Amino acid sequence: MNFHKNHWLLFGVTFFGFVGLSLIVGILPAIWVQNNAEPLPGAEPLTTLQREGLGVYVSEGCVACHTQQVRPLAVDQAWGRPATAGDYAYVTPLGPLVPYAPAVLGSERTGPDLTNVGARQASDVWQYIHLYNPRSVVPDSVMPAYPWLFDEVTVAAAGQTVVPVPAAFAPKNGSQVVPNARGMALVAYLLSLKQTPLGAATATPPGADTAAQAPTQPVADTAAQTAAPAAAPVLAWDESLGASTYTGTCAACHQANGQGLPGAFPPLAGDPVVTADDPTEHITVVLAGKQGGEIGGTTYASPMPAQAQLSDEQVAAVINHERTSWGNAATLVTPEEVAAVRGGLQ
Ligand code: HEC
Ligand code: HEC
User: Fold this and answer.
1) Torsion-angle region of residue 95: left (phi > 0), alpha (psi -120 to 50) or beta?
2) What's CA 345's distance to the chain center, in Å?
3) Which domains does the chain have, with CATH numbers?
4) For residue 152, how far is its CA from the centre of ligand 1 (angstroms)?
5) Is the CB of 141 under 6 A from ligand 1?
6) Along the 346 residues of the chain, how does pLDDT read in single tens digits?
7) Model-level pTM greater than 0.85?
8) Is 271 within 8 Å of 329 (Cβ atoms)?
9) Which of 112, 227, 321, 340 has the least C-beta neighbours within 10 A?
10) Whose CA is nearest to atom 41 of ligand 1?
């Protein structure tokens, strides 16, 4: 029995050691996970188009900067609830030969986690403008532009989505920008990225976990209310909650300076709804969204997505932020007024 002389012994030990370790460390746990992780109730498989988009996502290397795994850490709260095994169960066959689509977990977090981006950034128009050139909507973005997911045409054909690229970033020869087949598939995939809510018993609507996101400061006015009932002359409101909600939820479209993007998203500075004395319409737009209205002579192609996932406190604070920023000086609203309008909408 000498390792140095007996080749059978030497190679046998190495070979079976390798096979044994592979089984224990890799293969058996994977089989266990495959047999024990069920898709979450209500999890939806990808459509054909969305699956093509997953292929574009992988081939363009988006995974180099984006994860799809929310960790149970405070810094990840903004991206959704912590991921569970069921999120990665095989709901989406890639074809007869591949029974599941790969989970594109990623490990580099240069950009935001995209697990729930379809709920957070539900506007296809925003996604197109952002992919065409991220700097046009997020001035300091380091994300590369993906102009090859778009075609430049003189006149868009009927049914083609014209991307309202801001003038500074649009083609200089006046051509229109339309997404090509890969661009459309990728955006369909991005919009499908929504976390399945955990436990049907919790009465939260889909996407409500994003509301819980922004590590919000305790709302100051609950204390103020108990201390000083109706008589309080000056309306106390949480300015930092308003600013953080605006940055997290609205600035991607309406921009940090409230100027919007010409032709794509309306300015809120000086906007008649935002500066109206009666805030009912303002509250309604934020809670229920809006589409196709004419604002300052422009009709916007993209809808304003409903933001009903925000709490009454968040809506009141973000509205007050709009009403007191960028030169606006309009009457303030209370969470109670928001609750009343919300009740009327249901
Ligand atoms: C070099 C790193 C990098 C690469 C590669 C990259 N991104 Fe990004 N991405 C970022 C950064 C940084 C941000 C945050 C700033 C911004 O919104 O532009 C971001 C933001 C986003 C957002 C908005 C997320 C949110 O929460 O609002 C989406 C959607 C997105 N990226 C999709 C993609 C897709 C799809 C690809 C591949 C085609 C891609 N990214 C490739 C760095 C990257
Ligand atoms: C995905 C882009 C997007 C996001 C995010 C977004 N908006 Fe809008 N918003 C729009 C568009 C587009 C319109 C114009 C809709 C129309 O055609 O009437 C609009 C309209 C509005 C209006 C009405 C302006 C008017 O004169 O009618 C208000 C107020 C407003 N948004 C506030 C907000 C607030 C507050 C948030 C965040 C909580 C927000 N928006 C998030 C795109 C967006």
Assistant:
1) left
2) 24
3) 48-192 (1.10.760.10), 214-345 (1.10.760.10)
4) 22
5) yes
6) 788 899 999 999 999 999 999 999 988 988 887 788 888 888 888 899 999 999 999 999 999 999 999 999 999 988 989 998 888 887 777 777 776 666 789 999 999 999 999 988 888 889 999 999 999 989 899 999 999 999 999 988 888 888 988 888 999 998 999 999 999 999 999 999 999 988 654 444 444 444 444 444 444 444 444 444 444 445 678 888 999 899 888 988 999 899 998 888 999 999 999 999 999 999 999 999 998 888 888 888 788 888 988 999 999 999 999 999 999 999 999 999 999 999 998 7
7) no
8) no
9) 227
10) 62
Supply the residue whose CA is at minimum distance from atom 26 of ligand 2. Answer: 273
Token pair listed for 321? 């932020």
Query: Is 146 a pocket residue for ligand 1 (Cβ < 6 Å)?
Result: yes
Nearest to 141 by CA among 210, 191, 66: 66
CB-based pocket (< 6 A), ligand 2: 123, 126, 249-250, 252-254, 265-266, 268, 271-274, 282, 285-286, 290-293, 295, 300, 302, 304-305, 307, 318, 322
Residue listed under structure tokens 């363009």: 60
For ligand 1, is residue 259 a contact (CB within 6 Å)?
Answer: no
Rg (CA), the chain: 25
- Nearest-angstrom CA–CA distance, 233 and 195: 43
Measured from the CA of 249, which atom of ligand 2 is nearest? 37
